[in-house]
Amino acid sequence: MLSHLEHHANIVPWQQLAEETGAKLRIIPVDDDGRLVLDRYTALLTKRTRLVAVAHVSNVLGTIVPVTEIIEAAHRAGARVLVDGAQAAAHLPVNVQAMDADFYAFSGHKVFGPTGVGALYAKPEILQDMPPWQGGGNVISDVTFERTRYAAPPAKFEAGTGNIAGAVGLGAALDYVGNLGLPNIASYEHELLGYAIREISAVPGLRLIGIAPQKASALTFVLDGVLPQDVGAALDKQGIAVRAGHHCAQPTLRRYGLEAAVRPSLAMYNTCAEVDILAAALHKLADDRGSRG
Questions:
Q1: Is 252 exposed, middle or buried (0-12, 13-18, 19+ CB in 10 A)?
Q2: Residue 289 has what pLDDT?
Q3: Residue 60 contacts by C-beta under 8 Å, 6 or more apart in sequence?
Q4: Which residues contact 174 (CB under 8 A, 6 or more apart)?
Q5: Beta strands in 123-185 (DSSP E)
Q6: Catalytic residue among 211, 248, 258, 277
Q7: What are all long-range contacts of 252-260, with beta carbons under 8 Å and residues at least 24 apart?
Q8: Count of CB atoms within 10 A of residue 141's CB?
């Protein structure tokens, strides 16, 4: 089971698996504000549900998903839960044991580390029962031409030579955010997000997408009369970096009748002064659109 808030990376592999095995994908719906409809979720759960895979934070809407509730309900139904933490790990305190996640994954480049590296947590008893997903020298404890004995986890899942430089860089990035304190980061970004919402909401013709009360620091919007890619290009000329497009989450945007949108993402290094620059640039775009009309 997936939700309507998923990145393509948490959709495509499960579709491929479903094609191979005949499994059925069920989708947890999302409301107009960007929140998962939890009563529909629990209604979709059955004894045949094997895995629930959900984002901790939507990369498009910034919605913070109540993963603890999701996990509790799934476990009551006998299902395992994988949480995609790519958009959460740099912005929120994460305690995989407290939330009782079976699997939790995140990417290094989303937590200010290198690309091409990340982490997957899994409960030890699950890893013990799982076969290696790849063969390679490091996954073994003993090999003969007749049989192979595998090493204990996590070595059983570390085939070949790992991305050593990437892992060192990721460790440094985690030390950095850990020293700053994720509660401090979350508090600062929450205040900055509130300020940004107030400022850009005042732009004529601008519509925010995703206004859930529990929301991380992603602002996604469309501007009437201006294509998202044109908004992105105009902001880029002023040194303002945003993403314009479908954000690798087309089902989420299509839930709101869109094929593309603009997303500024705020982090602990951004300031209210930078938000003011963004708001002023958007006001100018809106004014220019009006004068062209």
A1: buried
A2: 78
A3: 5, 209, 210, 218, 220, 247, 249, 252, 253, 261, 263
A4: 111, 113
A5: 140-143, 148-150
A6: 248
A7: 252/4, 252/5, 252/6, 252/30, 252/58, 252/60, 252/61, 253/60, 253/209, 255/4, 255/30, 256/209, 258/209, 258/222, 260/227, 260/228, 260/229
A8: 11
φ and ψ at residue 82, rounded to 5 degrees: -110, 130
Structure tokens at 5: 């808030």
The backbone region for 33, taken as left when phi is positive above 0, alpha when psi lies in -120 to 50, beta otherwise, is alpha
Separation between Cα atoms, residue 73 and residue 100, nearest integer Å: 11
278 with 235: CB under 8 angstroms? yes
Q: What is the pLDDT of residue 32?
A: 97
Quote the CA–CA distance of 148 and 262 in Å, as a whole number: 51
> What Rg value do the Cα atoms of the chain yield, rounded?
21
**Tokens for 62?**
């910034």
Sheet (strand 206-208) strand order? 206-208, 221-223, 261-263, 243-245
- Would you call 248 a catalytic residue per the annotation? yes
User: By C-alpha distance, which of 133, 162, 164 is closest to 150?
Assistant: 133
What parts of the chain have a pLDDT lower than 70? 290-293
Q: Residue type for 292, please?
A: R
pLDDT at 293: 54
Q: How many residues does the chain have?
A: 293
Residues 6+ apart with CB under 8 A from 219: 62, 193, 196, 197, 200, 208, 263, 264, 265, 266
Place of tokens 């045949």: 48
- Cα separation, 190 vs 197, whole angstroms: 11
